[in-house]
């Protein structure tokens, strides 16, 4: 049943009931999670630089193995240095309350969520908007790309059936977005509702190998400005395939994802590009285990993004670096990594670094 439970949470994550900061509640123990993430990007000529520092905060309550409740926020400091201007902001994100309930004999997971508007809205067009636009880049994959909106409510259901070594699953989800003012002096904006669907599989291949994947589709309703319908984005079609291989003291995992060309459901400014080209990404993690719960990591990823309809967003970026994860003490777990990125974005050479420290303090057994 463990493989089926894990797959249910993975499938629920693929068709997540939240558009931002997705989480699948894999930890079934009460815990406090935090850490620090830092990313820095620069063009080769250093005429543009972008940095972001994030301290994620998560309180995860699991009174039993069937139910969990999480409270999440991501305080963020972001700064952009351009050739003619500098912009920065510091803000909490919207506060998210999310729950997960296992149904029956672990054949289903029901998710509910509420997002409360504690994040930054009514952005200053000169001092905050330039950096808020830059951090939305999918190719740069910054930890926080969305700061604040209106009230959001969501629900999702994932179902799975195990037959021999196969687990097949289906998930459905929906989101309602409230209205907010994105830029100071602008009209109130309300993103349209979302409906998500996913089909997935999980296959155990022998004693050491596991393969799983999914296809998902998200439908977006019409956005509104001052109550008037103004725009409806294309649906989002995505594919993913992943594998985990255990061999002696090694664990090798890889993930391939492809988001097909589409129009984004929301942009911070009408002057900023609101469409995306095809986005292909592959990532891998090699873990060399030692002791009981510790491992050295080798991480690598490739992002190959095509240009959108406006000719922007084309990117090829390679990311690589070492990491470590393990148990510092009986209740405290740590994962850390440092990665270097090299590539091009919109035909401009750039490089970046990412440092990640993640802490999980387990409260219950």
Low-confidence stretches: 1-9, 14-26
State the share of residues found in helices, binned by percent: under 10%
Query: Describe the biggest sheet?
Result: 16 strands, antiparallel, barrel
Give the overall shape, derived from the CA principal axes: globular
Query: What is the succession of H and E elements?
Result: HEEEEEEEEHEEEEEEEEEEEEEEEE
Strand order of the main beta sheet, please?
1-3-4-7-8-9-10-12-13-16-17-20-21-22-23-24
Radius of gyration: 21 Å
Structural class: mainly beta
Please tally the helical runs, counting DSSP H or I stretches of 4 or more residues.
2
In whole angstroms, the N-to-C terminal distance is 20 Å
Report the sheet-strand fraction. over 45%
Q: Averaged pLDDT, please?
A: 86
Quantity of strands, as a count: 24
Any overview of this molecule?
The chain is mostly beta strands and 365 residues long. The protein is built from two helices and 24 strands. The strands form three sheets. Strands 1-3-4-7-8-9-10-12-13-16-17-20-21-22-23-24 form a 16-stranded antiparallel beta barrel. A three-stranded antiparallel beta sheet has the order 11-14-15, with no helix packed on it. A hairpin with a 3-residue loop joins strand 20 (279-290) and strand 21 (294-305). The longest helix is centred in the first third of the chain and has 13 residues, at 2-14. The protein starts with a helix and ends with a strand. Residues 1-9 and 14-26 have low confidence and may be disordered.
């Amino acid at each position: 049943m463990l493989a089926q439970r894990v797959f249910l949470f993975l499938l629920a994550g693929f068709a997540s009931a939240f558009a931002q900061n997705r989480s699948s509640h894999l930890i079934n123990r009460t815990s406090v999670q935090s850490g620090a993430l830092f990313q820095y990007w620069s063009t080769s000529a250093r005429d543009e630089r972008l940095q972001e520092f994030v301290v994620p905060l998560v309180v995860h309550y699991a009174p039993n193995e069937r139910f969990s409740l999480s409270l999440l926020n991501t305080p963020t400091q972001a700064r952009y240095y351009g050739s003619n201007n500098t912009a920065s902001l510091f803000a909490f994100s919207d506060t998210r309350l999310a729950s997960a309930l296992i149904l029956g004999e672990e054949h289903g997971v029901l998710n509910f969520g509420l997002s409360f508007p504690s994040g930054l809205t009514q952005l200053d067009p000169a001092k905050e908007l330039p950096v808020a636009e830059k951090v939305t880049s999918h190719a740069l994959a910054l930890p926080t790309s969305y700061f604040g909106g209106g009230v959001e409510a969501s629900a999702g259901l994932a179902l799975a059936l195990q037959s021999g070594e196969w687990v097949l699953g289906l998930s459905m989800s929906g989101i309602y977005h409230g209205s907010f003012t994105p830029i100071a002096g602008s009209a109130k904006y309300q993103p349209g509702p979302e409906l998500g669907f996913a089909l997935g599989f999980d296959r155990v291949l022998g004693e050491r190998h596991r393969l799983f994947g999914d296809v998902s589709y998200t439908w977006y309703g019409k956005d509104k400005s001052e109550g008037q319908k103004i725009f409806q984005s294309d649906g989002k079609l995505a594919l993913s395939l992943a594998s985990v291989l255990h061999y002696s003291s090694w664990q090798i995992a890889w993930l391939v994802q492809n988001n097909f060309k589409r129009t984004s459901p929301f942009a911070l400014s009408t002057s900023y590009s609101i469409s995306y080209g095809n986005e292909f990404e592959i990532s891998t993690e090699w873990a060399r285990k030692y002791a009981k719960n510790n491992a050295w990591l080798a991480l690598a990823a490739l992002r190959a993004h095509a240009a959108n309809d406006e000719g922007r967003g084309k990117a090829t970026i390679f990311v690589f670096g070492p990491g470590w994860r393990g148990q510092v003490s009986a209740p405290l777990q740590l994962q850390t990594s440092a990665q270097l990125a090299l590539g091009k974005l919109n035909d401009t050479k750039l490089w970046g670094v990412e440092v990640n420290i993640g802490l999980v303090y387990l409260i219950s057994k």
